Amino acid sequence: MSAKRISKIQEKAANKQVFLVEGTDDVAMWEKFFTLYQANWAVNWHIDYAGNKKQVVSILKMQTNWYGIIDTDEWQPEKIRELQTEISHLFTLPRYCAENYLIVPDEIWACLSPNEQAKIGDFAECERVLLRDLNQYVRHGALWFVINPLWEGLRSKGFKEDLLNIENAQNQQFIHDKLREWHDYLQPEKIEQAFANKLAEIQGKQPEILLKHHIHGKKFFENVICKQFNQWFGQQNETHIRRNLIRYMKQLPDDILPIFQEIGL
């Protein structure tokens, strides 16, 4: 899969420098970021997608002169640090995931037309409405941080394939030992304590910090931003809302600038 994808990207990029992102939706956002930094970036750069995080990593291991970036919403920080040590041309998104650039009230407000702003009233009302359920998403973000990486941990311990082949199905001791290994890995008390610790760590932080770094942007965008936009401006689908927020961004987010400086854009 990686070799085929590399070939397609090389064909489109020609002799341009490649910047690799995870998915097709990410391409539009990064094209906007590049444009806000340097209007003629496309002369020397090509932005393309790998398909997912693993594909970004796999491709960058083979294409050492390409750059790439991944979200931080799926993997544990330790794994990401190891990958960045191994792959110096791999970057991580400064915020939790791409949608975290589409959920901060003042950044959203700056993307709206005067007519759209008038329909809301003022910025204070915009912020009040968008943040009224913030605490629910803080809890969800803390739980996501703790729970989501468990899946990859289980997979590394053979879940579920180790017990789904004919040979191992005949070995009762192996079945017992493997189930015990999975059970020991999923220690409820330890996981619950990790959740409590993470929640204590982030509760009380400023809303802007929470929205950028601790709340799962995809969920907040789908459940809060899109729902509220439909109430304010009439029925729109998620793709339309996302596209317009990106299209009408007027300023490059400050936390993107260091990436562009490092890649020499």
Detail the topology: elements first, then pairings.
Layout: H1 2-13, E1 17-21, H2 24-37, E2 45-49, H3 53-62, E3 67-70, H4 77-86, E4 90-92, H5 105-111, H6 114-120, H7 123-131, H8 134-156, H9 166-169, H10 172-185, H11 188-202, H12 207-213, H13 217-233, H14 238-247, H15 257-263
Parallel strand pairs: 1-2, 1-3, 3-4
What does this structure look like?
This protein has helices at residues 2-13, 24-37, 53-62, 77-86, 105-111, 114-120, 123-131, 134-156, 166-169, 172-185, 188-202, 207-213, 217-233, 238-247, 257-263; strands at 17-21, 45-49, 67-70, 90-92. The protein is α/β, with parallel strands linked by helices and 265 residues long. The chain has two domains: 1-93 and 251-265, Rossmann fold, CATH 3.40.50; 101-234, no CATH class. Strands 2-1-3-4 form a four-stranded parallel sheet. Helix 8 (134-156) crosses helix 11 (188-202). The radius of gyration is 21 Å and the shape is globular. It starts with a helix and ends with a helix. Residues 18-201 form the DUF4435 domain.
Kindly, what is the distance between the CA atoms of the first and last residues, rounded to a whole number of angstroms? 29 Å
Numbering strands along the chain, what is their spatial order in the largest sheet?
A: 2-1-3-4
- Along the chain, the helix and strand elements come as HEHEHEHEHHHHHHHHHHH
Number of helical segments with 4 or more residues: 15
Mean pLDDT value: 95
Strand content: 5-15%
Kindly name the structural category: alpha/beta
Low-confidence stretches: none
Outline, from the CA principal axes? Answer: globular
Number of strands: 4
Q: How many domains make up the 3D coordinates?
A: 2
**What percent of the residues sit in helical stretches (DSSP H or I)?**
55-70%
Organism: Alysiella crassa
Pfam families: DUF4435
InterPro entries: DUF4435
Domain DUF4435: 18-201
